[in-house]
Amino acid sequence: MSTFSTHVLDTARGCPAVDLPIRIEGRDGHGWILLDEGVTNNDGRVSLMPDGLEPGVYQLNFDTAEWFAARGVKTFYPVVSIVFEITASDQHYHVPLLLSPYGYSTYRGS
Length: 110
Hints:
The protein is mostly beta strands.
């Protein structure tokens, strides 16, 4: 199985996004199935799917509305969803999120 990691950086403040709720879902023939969930730690990281991921299509959902609201900040994106595909079971997949109230970006990291 592939190992997997994610982290979130608050680019507006220049620091990790602490306590951000994240869910990971897997796609099946009828939609999405919740696989795991957690919140980011003091480094903006969360441990999801510690046993790894099989090849397939997955979705990360970051609850940005709740997170920004707790900080008294309005956001244009109440949820950030990142859909990605695991193709090789012998690789590490890192999916980071760079976040601000009115924009975000992501990439496949190492």
